[in-house]
Amino acid sequence: ELLLSSPQMQRWPVVLFLAWVCLLFFAGIGLFMSGFLLTRIELASSSSCSDPLVPPPWERQSLPPGSCWAPQRFSKAVLIIIDALHFEFARFDPAKVSPLPYENKLGVLYQLATSQPRHARLYRFRADPPTATMQRIKGLTTGSLPTFIDVGSNFASYAIQEDNLLAQLVQNGRRVVFMGDDTWEGLFPKKFFRSYFFPSFNVKDLHTVDDGILQHLYPTVDSGEWDVLIAHFLGVDHCGHKHGPDHPEMAKKLTQMNEMLRSLVDHLGNDTLLLVAGDHGMTETGDHGGDSEKEVNAALFVYSRTPLFGSGPPEEPETIPQVNLVPTVALLLGVPIPYSNIGEVMAELFSGDGDTVSAALQQLSVYHINAKQVDRFLQSYSLVAQDLPAEQLQHLQELFSSAVEEHTQLLAQVQGTMLVPPELESRLGGLIGRFQRYLREARAVCTQSWARFHPLRMVGGCILIASSCLLCYMASELAASSHSFYRSCLLYPLLWGLVGAALLGLAHVFTQEGLDLLLVSSWAAAASQLGFFWHWWGQHPKRTRLAGSQPPLASGGPRQRLRAWLGLAFPMGILFFRCGAMFSDSFVVAEARVTPFLLASLVMLLVGKLHWDGRLTVPEGPKQQLLGFSSYRREIWYLLCLVAMLLVCVRLSSFFHQCREEIPQCRPSVFLSPLASLRSTRAKNLFYLLCVALLAGLVYAVQSWLRHYGNLNSSDPLVLFVRWGFPLVVLCIACYWAVASSADDSLGKLQELVQVAVIVFPWAVYGLASVGLLLLLCNPMTVFAKDTRESAGSIVTPYLGVPSSEVDFLHVIPQIYKRMQESQKNRLERGSCRATVAAYGLGSVYSAALVIALTLLGFLLMLLHSERLSFAFLLLFMEAFVLLHIHTPVAGLLMPPFSVPWYAVISWILAASQFFYSTGHQPIFPAIHWNAAFVGFHLDHSTNFLPAVLVGANTFASHILFAVGCPLLLLWPFVCEMSSSQKKKPKKESREELQEVEEHMMEMRLRESPEKFSTALLRLGLKYLFVLGAQLLACVCAAMILRRHLMVWKVFAPKFLFESLGFVVSSICLLLGISLVMRVDCAVSTWFSQLRLR
Amino acid sequence: MREAEIRRLLAANLLCAVSIILAALVPAFFLDGFSVLGTHLTWLCVCSVCVATLNIILHLVLKPSQSPKRSSFAHKISRFLKCCIYFFMSCILFHAIIVLYGAPLIESVTETFLFAVLLSTFTTLQCLCLLGPNVQAWIRVFSKNGAMSIWESSLQITTVCSILGAWFGAFPIPLDWDRPWQVWPISCSLGATFGYMAGLIIAPLWIHWNRKQLTYKSR
């Protein structure tokens, strides 16, 4: 029995190694994210007047009309928000001799507070981080702590979905008038009775918003057609950003605010409450966004013409959290407290004019309402999310129920007049204290989990990612295929990690603490990294001695080493620029233009450098030397044409860009809108035909490529699928586009049919594509073997029985080739066809599988995008093709085979991020193509999983395609080996026959040396991960270092999120691509063994 | 001999650098409201013309490339015409490359083209002066060990510096500083100019310091 199998390459260790490295990165990302991204779940419920938590009936009967939950104290309110009104700006110290520009400017507040101490009071108003205006407006209206990601029902708009003060006011029939910052327009669409919005974007513009408000403020106040008036001034904030607080402009701006307040007070009526608030403070440089003392320290001023307070002001202004404003204003105006509020009422505003007991009773009732509302919120929140710790919730629950119990008892006693004032007073005071304690502890629990960065975790995540990058780099330099390498660099580190995790688990068992999975996994990752570095260090001296015969960088003179290092410096320099660009908000905003610039520069530099090094010229002959010329390889024109094509592709792809709001003059590409939105029928038809022609062209191109390499001859199911299934997929997509872009009303009776077709066609594409991918997995061989041997004996190898060593293995494949070559020769000589095995398409079997997979994925992703973006996909495929073809001759000139140079990997990744933008995406949430979730669905998703996958695939389309196609960088030079050497040959023989001549082994060269092949794949994967990881590291560091930056929540944090998600998608797709190559290799092995057995 | 030649090179390069500075300052006396940033197009023209004339004059005076045989008048004319065509083609090529690098396609075509002319003046014109319309020789000069005289080394350095300067000049464009010089193509043309001037000064110094290592193949 011949049980010979061909020499095996190490498949599992390679995949495992890459998966392990990916997991290390994931642990770092997870750790960083848990420290940086504050998340919270938005509840959809809202409070209403008839909620059962209102006070007992006897108290309710006394509610005046128009009041909910508590008696209304003011019928009108004016809320003046002065953006970035720091507490120091509002404080007035008459003793100051030479005040700074921002000091002692708001004199009117001081005058009111001193002349009418029971009417006016100044507070320190503590903002919760993140101290960005939008988050603060959310906080000031919902009474909650907005985080960066408020997981709600709708990501697509910024509109506040949660219950909020404005919604309550509108629901209860109050007229709300707004003027100022147009951020409110996005947050509260169509909520205002009347509104005057002014653009907030230009930070350099100090006056537009303020002057606009001043123009409308007094007429509106005097007209009386409002119940609540909100004016949001931006000048102070913009002045801070432009000049900083310590600047004469700030003095002017604050003086203007002072005048505004002075005349506003004169316009107010007796039933009006005036609130002047800053939404956050500012640092010495005028920035805000973080959680430093200066940023969170804002000011609040309360005033009314009727007495508000029972007593005079305290010595030092009281500090109150910002969320406290929401329940206070709600109850003062007689509307329900918003559902998600966690603020505590400012009780002193409810004391009224009566004696101490009635004041205390009044305060107690508002505390009671407040506490019940907070308790209701905490209970419903803990039902949907687990981020609040259970034992603390339990503790809060106990506090609440005991306080409520005592409250009922006390009220009963008051009813029965069983208590005399002194005792009553103390008991009332005690009870108020207990409610206060409950409310404060509840808020503290929420703050802890929603509004605090964890610097330690952030730094830890950063370090993990950085060391993973280092690991990738070192492993990509050192990777070898020996067992000892995998043992010391994979197995032992994995064991280290497991031991670390187990130790942590044990520690947790002993200390009885809750097990944080994220922490455990990151400790395990750190331990396994330590293991890697430890074993690497132990191996290092041995390795250099061993590798003395074939050193890549180790030996050679210092000059040579310097040269090798310089060669590395040029692609790494481009990568360095790319990473550096992540640290500037302007560059992140302009990244859509930065990446193509860098890609073009990288390729141009590459060609320039090759020329400079004289690699493009052939060695000079004596005759040419005489003339002083150097003649050129023929490739140079080919190479220059390719570079020109690449530049054109890069430039054309910029016509598909989406816009960001930071660049106001930008117009989004017309290709982004679906065809259905086109008015003109002619244009629609034209574009439709173009798109379909493009799809057909793509199929034709792929098929003819496969035919050229002989991969389209066999009658395997996969090949049949490529022949007939691909056109069918295109037909389905074309039908879907036709149905989706047709005008809805023109179809009349066909309407129902269209409704069905819109669902059916995408599903047909999904089905066909998955059938294709399954076929690819089951039998990825696209080889057509023509066996014309007379008997099996003609190719019998000299090795009978089980091979004794690896050396024997290595002989088998060449043996077959030799045989094939001999028979070929025989045939050519004698013109007979005896004893040959003609294998059509064996030389490109790996690439063919990848190309088929990429085409299928491309169809799927095109289906998820709007029709005309298929042009962008065409450009993507062309650019990838051109890049591979540039890489092929260059790789032949530069490097030994079996190694992919850095510049190729970096240009591949640059192209991937370039096409992220060129398929109409931007790293911001409003730019996500949500429509993708409904391709093949009718607005009825039962789970969140499917839409997430669809939208994710749409967003990271280019990442997916380029990552899956990454192994092509290694394979392409081998595939193109034929076409370059073919030119020299006379074209007498047909192409298919040529392929099996031994000189044209193409990808079978890889099989010939399986160890080199697996090492090369591993190195390629590691290099890819290193470059991706370096970009990710830059993003992470930028987000961490610039977390106080003005733009952190608008630019850096979304960029970080998109980059890390992109990393996860890319790395998984990279693994899939490499696994596909491994699968093909398995299939090739079985094919060979079958061939031998026959 | 070589020391003297280096000194001549230094003098020529310094003259060029001074002419660029003068091109930025002198026209303000003749033209109302002239400034490099405000009337950028005018400056681009003036600078290109200045550098071009000076280079041609210097070339005629210094004759760094001794042509071995005397040629006929007709030959000279055809050579000159060829030079003009080459220069124009290089302007078009630079324009195309700049657009491919991301410059606006239709808006501010004049600016882009004049910037291309400036770049051609800094690079192609010098090649034409020194090497003539001979692409093979150009290709030879721009490869390692390709320079055959200090003039050619200087050409290498100034050309590379100008292009690098233009490349780095694109960096500040996306920043949100709202400065007048961030407008296309001012930062790039300024970058190219500064790069060229830096190249002019670096070249003689670098040649001086490396004069031991520099061994030019004699023809």
From TrEMBL, chain A:
GO terms for cellular component: endoplasmic reticulum membrane. The chain crosses the membrane at residues 12-38, 458-478, 490-510, 517-537, 562-583, 595-612, 636-657, 686-706, 718-741, 753-777, 845-864, 871-894, 900-918, 956-975, 1022-1042, 1062-1088. The keyword RNA-binding does not apply. It is a multi-pass membrane protein. Pathway: Glycolipid biosynthesis; glycosylphosphatidylinositol-anchor biosynthesis. It is found in: Endoplasmic reticulum membrane. It comes from the Eukaryota. GO terms for molecular function: mannose-ethanolamine phosphotransferase activity. CDD domains: GPI_EPT_3. InterPro entries: Alkaline_phosphatase_core_sf, Phosphodiest/P_Trfase, PIG-O_N, PIGO/GPI13. Keywords: Endoplasmic reticulum, Glycoprotein, GPI-anchor biosynthesis, Membrane, Transferase, Transmembrane, Transmembrane helix. GO terms for biological process: GPI anchor biosynthetic process. Belongs to the PIGG/PIGN/PIGO family. PIGO subfamily. This is GPI ethanolamine phosphate transferase 3, catalytic subunit. It comes from Malurus cyaneus samueli.
UniProtKB/TrEMBL annotation, chain B:
InterPro entries: GPI_biosynthesis_protein_Pig-F. Keywords: Endoplasmic reticulum, GPI-anchor biosynthesis, Membrane, Transmembrane, Transmembrane helix. It is found in: Endoplasmic reticulum membrane. Pathway: Glycolipid biosynthesis; glycosylphosphatidylinositol-anchor biosynthesis. GO terms for biological process: GPI anchor biosynthetic process. GO terms for cellular component: endoplasmic reticulum membrane. This is Phosphatidylinositol glycan anchor biosynthesis class F. It comes from Malurus cyaneus samueli. The lineage of its organism: Eukaryota, Metazoa, Chordata, Craniata, Vertebrata.
